[in-house]
Amino acid sequence: MAGPPIHELHFAEEPSVDRVPGPNSRRLLDRQEAIDSSAVAYPNDIPLAFEEGKGATLKDADGNVFLDFFAGIGVYNVGHANPYVNEGVHEQIDKLTHTVDFPTEPRLDLIDKLDEIAPGSLTGNSRFVFGGPTGSDAVEASIKLAKYNTGGNGLLAFRNSYHGATAGAMSITSNKKFKKPYAPLLPDVVHAPFPYPFREGRSPEESVDRALEEVRAIVEEPYGGLTDPAGIFVEPIQGEGGVIAPPDGFLSGLREIADENDLPLMFDEIQVGMGRTGEWWASEHYDVTPDVMTTAKALGGNGQPLSGTMYHEDLDTWGPGDHAGTYRGHVPAMVGGLRAIEYIESHDLLDHATEVGAWIRDRLRDAGEGDPGLGQVRGKGLFVGAEFVDANGEPDDDRVEAIQEYCYEHGVLVWTAGQYGNVVRLLPPLVLTQQQAEVGTEVIADAIEATAELAIAE
């Protein structure tokens, strides 16, 4: 078996928190505020300075131990400091770290392994191009690949989406406030509706039909608004948008429209891939294969920066140097990625994520029974979203902020999502034990109950 069993990876099964932030965290937070960029965001919501991580647990600078239910926003799928991954990375660092795109055994082994676990018909028919340290780099490569192969310029993306912070990736991201200071970005990008039955007040079937009708109109109608389309870019399950898993029929409908119009269908699997949803790739839940697929975050295994784009071999029309980047040869990250995949396989973490994630969603639904403020619990695998609304059915971001604060104070780190910030988003490491899931979810359930009382009082 690759590495130790999951129950041996952590500091403890339960959190141990005194006062937060403690004096050492406070000192480091103050120092950061004095010298770091004003763009720093995460400590504004969870004021902590971390010292060490193991498995699904984090220790701060004051020795407080937390259950980690957001895993670096999906980076640590096999947990912090996984010894099987770290061992290989350490050995590689001592030998060779950077090779641009010269061949190495780890590079080729990882490409072979990714082809082996590729979704659908990409298995045995794929090519893989490594990118720089962030998912945005993989998105940029996908945009370039689509334009290179089609000769087109226009891109169709979706509302409520997030694809990254570089210029091209930001162009297909839908957040207007996020993009406005940097406009103009890429021209000729049109955003279609993404099926969101809960927010739309429609049935799943109606929501899918409406979205696909809009997509078809944008691509095919003479006044559809998108000139010379180059491709369709979508998250199989929206992450930052609020853990929105589209109803059945949506991705297959996009596949049909793309095929009929000779357009590449591109899936962003950066947050939801590498086993996060209980399948290697979220698209596998819908039995739909993309032409192009991006991956990053958990790809580096133990937080090593690495991104990449998998695509059908028929699209491999680039000439030498037509896509480039210095850090596409980060060999320790490639070792980390390969070992992470081996660890997931060896410990059956896809099935584990499916079972534990279903348990968490059921427990949260039970916690919200009789609470009209908990509008919906959704997701797949260990990718969970709980959406909160006020008495008028409007997004309740204040309550979600209070839930996050309560969890933080009681030793469970959760994050938020949704265009209105009214979704509690959980994406713990896949190595989270059942006992840790129960302990952490009880804290979240207590937070739901405590904040429901406050909501009623208001």
UniProtKB/TrEMBL annotation:
The keyword Transferase applies. Its cofactor is pyridoxal 5'-phosphate. SUPFAM superfamilies: PLP-dependent transferases. It comes from the Archaea. InterPro entries: Aminotrans_3, Aminotrans_3_PPA_site, Class-III_PLP-dep_AT, PyrdxlP-dep_Trfase, PyrdxlP-dep_Trfase_major, PyrdxlP-dep_Trfase_small. Gene3D superfamilies: Aspartate Aminotransferase, domain 1, Type I PLP-dependent aspartate aminotransferase-like (Major domain). The keyword Acyltransferase does not apply. One of its GO terms (molecular function) is transaminase activity. Keywords: Aminotransferase, Pyridoxal phosphate, Transferase. It holds the Pfam family Aminotran_3. PANTHER family: ACETYLORNITHINE AMINOTRANSFERASE, MITOCHONDRIAL, AMINOTRANSFERASE CLASS III. Belongs to the class-III pyridoxal-phosphate-dependent aminotransferase family. This is Aminotransferase class-III. The lineage of its organism: Archaea, Methanobacteriati, Methanobacteriota, Stenosarchaea group, Halobacteria.
